[in-house]
Amino acid sequence: MFICTFKDYVATRWYRAPELCGSFFSKYTPAIDIWSIGCIFAEMLTGKPLFPGKNVVQQLDLMTDLLGTPSSESIARIRNEKARRYMNNMAKKPRVPFSQKFPNADPLALRLLERLLAFDPRNRCSAEEALADPYFFSLTNMEDEPSTQPIPKLEFEFERRNLTKDSIRELIYREILEYHPQMLQEYLDGVDRISFMYPRERVCAHIEEDDEENSDLEKHAASAIARTKQFRSEMDPEAVSILHVIKYSRLRILTDL
Question: N or C: which end of the chain has fewer CB within 10 A?
């Protein structure tokens, strides 16, 4: 797997993984996203942020107040000398049982939360492992959610191109045409290479023609949304919400940039 070098400002402080707060390691791994998901999940269970630190030092203190002092092995792996010294000099703290911190939470939810909020990134579960957790037993079907290889960097070459205003205007117009097949075909055939300065009138002329088709699509979408709402109403709202967050993280992890 391709792993990127990271900076410590890529995440909002309250949801930063320990390795970001202390510049512990030099690589950005999927475990950083998993930690953030754990913080979000804990906030959903209590209604308030789990680690609302005012600065990086307090952030680490809040983490260790709950998770206890990291093992000597984990501290030894910290590449930043100042951070390593700070962790070594920190007063030894015992781990607070999650059942004590979250007394009203589902035990299965706490079991998952402990896997998401492991101080050492090597001990955190992956997105696939989280989706397979018993907490999501009634919500997921792992056979229908296969994993794939990371998206190759070549797929993002378009982000490295130098574009002029006219080029950007044409790309936007080309994207609009994706929703108007007839106009798109004319464009590709070179029949109607109109100016990209004012494409709005040209596009809007076709909207009325698509109204009937769009109406059927809207009815189908409304029906699907109604079924989804009925299904979700029967489920634990925290489970449904955090499931979607993990799935989004899983998609994001599939990119290797």
Answer: N
Number of neighbouring beta carbons within 10 Å of residue 113: 23
Tell which residue, 115, 110, 121, has the closest CA to residue 32.
Answer: 121
User: Tokens in use for 44?
Assistant: 């959903």
Local structure of 216: helix, strand or coil = helix
Residue 85 tokens, joined: 């010294």
pTM of structure: 0.63
Task: Tell me what the mean pLDDT of segment 228-256 comes to.
Answer: 60
Residue percentage of the chain with pLDDT more than 90: 28
| Burial bucket for residue 28 (CB in 10 Å: 0-12, 13-18, 19+) | middle
In angstroms, what CA-CA distances link 30 with 17, 33, 256? 11, 5, 10
Burial class (CB in 10 A: 0-12, 13-18, 19+), 31: buried
The residue that leads in pLDDT, 87 or 21, is 87
Q: How many CA atoms lie within 13 A of 123 on its CB side?
A: 16
| DSSP-assigned letter for residue 5 | E
What's the rounded Cα separation, in Å, for the pair 84 and 80? 6
Give me the pLDDT at residue 191, please: 65
Q: What token pair was written down for 197?
A: 């300065």
CA 96 to chain CA centroid, nearest Å = 27
The gap between the terminal CA atoms of the chain, to the nearest Å, is: 11
